[in-house]
Here is the input.
Amino acid sequence: MNVPLISPSVLSADFGNLARDIDTVNRSEADWLHLDVMDGVFVPNISFGFPVISAVKGHSTKPLDVHLMISDPDRYLSRFRDAGADILTVHYEAATHLHRTVDEIKRLGMKAGVSINPHTPVTHLSEILPFLDLVLVMSVNPGFGGQSFIYPALEKLRWLRRQAESNGYHYHIEVDGGVDLVTAPLATEAGASVLVAGSAIFGSENPALTISEMKRSLK
Ligand code: DX5
Ligand code: ZN
Here is the structure.
């Protein structure tokens, strides 16, 4: 089993001390920095947009892993690239012509990811998998940090790993929502190669230590 990449979610950082919290991540063993963009339409919450992402880009030494929870993402792909996104993930449920969207993300020079909500069968991704750099399995209903892990997500991770092994696909398998020191090893064992965690990292006494522990919390 490989050591997972860790992508701390800024949603649970202290927005009044954002530069400080990004510095903490910079000095940690984290691999990416996860940014959740919410539009109040696709999900029942609003988070932040381009100015915040640009500011974070100016401070972060880690690649920006941008998770779009927005309707009609095609309208904004180039603006997220300009703001500093390195990996751009759209929701399967929010894109009508997903193959075109994925192509456009790559044409703009970013890595392309697709995410699915807890109720969406992972098999709906079978036609798009060969074109993806990343698949993001939501293990909570998107919109908020601090929710509990939905365990059937583990079976989706297993299926994605089997598909990658049997077809020679090279996508990252990322899991997002309710990931902590208890669920991280279960997700890694099931096939996750990237763990997103917000409250478990920024809500802990020592975020850098929690990141290290999560990287090594193998089952
Ligand atoms: C939820 C977001 C997550 C969120 C995870 O919609 O996509 O990235 O920050 O938060 P935790 O780790 O607290 O569940
Ligand atoms: Zn997210």
Q: What stands out?
A: The mean pLDDT is 97. The pocket of D-xylitol-5-phosphate (ligand 1) is lined by residues 9, 11-12, 34, 36, 67, 140, 142-143, 145-147, 176-179, 196-200 (CB under 6 Å). Residues 153-167 form the longest helix (15 residues).
